[in-house]
Design a protein that fits this description.
It contains 9 helices and no strands.
Length: about 260
């Protein structure tokens, strides 16, 4: 048994969970929202569809080179889930009678940034992106002004909560023998990137957040708190036990900081 066997089992079992959640989404309806709100979610969904669409080849190649085939298998299954999220956002765009976008500078910049260094850096950047965006998915699930949009949010939020835990587990393994001053330096660098990511998110998705009843400025602070909780969990010196997956669908605490599973 390796530390990531439970993650392989979790991701393999998710097919049935996904089917159950998606069965509750009524795609045949028509969005009962005004034109301004529709435009806000079209803009937002286009960004997320593009951002979640990567094939993960660079990341998977680095994971394979690190020599843990079980982790690499789990990571490959996670990448497939991210691609399913992209497809869900694409389906949401069709529900909103809108097309996809081919490229955006934020996606290109993030891709370049995460490929600068090694596996830990790339996983750390994914942790930043997912922890900063987690509140958006929760807001979509709970407060979007349309049941189909809420269904998309709930379906993705359930996955993303475990994706954050998965990234934390890999980083706990990667930083287990790293001296405390270096971990502190890494956390400070992450915080700068997280502040930039949160700013980009509230600029790109601010109107959609308002449609969910959330002020972008309030969301920025919430996103940074979520990031800090995840970063502390990943970098704390005494974190030798891995979190493992959780089947909880919604939670009020920041993802990745509740009790570990064994």
């Amino acid at each position: 048994m390796t530390p990531f066997d439970s993650w392989v089992r979790h991701f393999e079992a998710n097919t049935d969970r996904h089917a159950a959640l998606e069965a509750d989404i009524d795609w045949e309806g028509y969005p009962a929202i005004d034109a301004r709100t529709r435009t806000a979610f079209v803009r937002s969904f286009r960004r997320f569809e593009l951002g979640e669409s990567g094939d993960g080849r660079h990341l998977l190649a680095m994971a394979a080179a690190a020599g843990d085939p079980v982790y690499t298998k789990a990571l490959g299954l996670l990448v497939l889930e991210e691609q399913k999220h992209s497809a869900l956002f694409g389906r949401g765009l069709r529900y909103l009678d809108a097309s996809s976008m081919d490229s955006h500078w934020t996606d290109a910049a993030f891709t370049r940034l995460r490929r600068l260094l090694g596996l830990r850096t790339e996983i750390g950047l994914f942790l930043i992106a997912e922890s900063v965006a987690m509140g958006y998915f929760d807001a979509l699930a709970e407060h979007a002004p349309d049941p189909v949009l809420r269904g998309i949010g709930n379906r993705i939020a359930t996955d993303e909560r475990n994706h954050i835990r998965f990234q934390i587990d890999r980083l706990r393994v990667g930083f287990r023998h790293t001296p405390a001053p270096l971990r502190l330096l890494v956390g400070s660098a992450w915080a700068l990137v997280a502040a930039g990511a949160a700013t980009v998110l509230v600029v790109d998705h601010g109107t959609a957040l308002r449609a969910c009843g959330i002020r972008p400025t309030a969301y920025w602070g919430r996103a940074m708190r979520s990031f800090r909780a995840a970063a502390r969990s990943a970098l704390a010196a005494d974190n030798v036990t891995l979190l493992g997956p959780t089947n909880r669908t919604m939670q009020s605490a920041p993802a990745g900081v509740d009790a570990p599973t064994r």
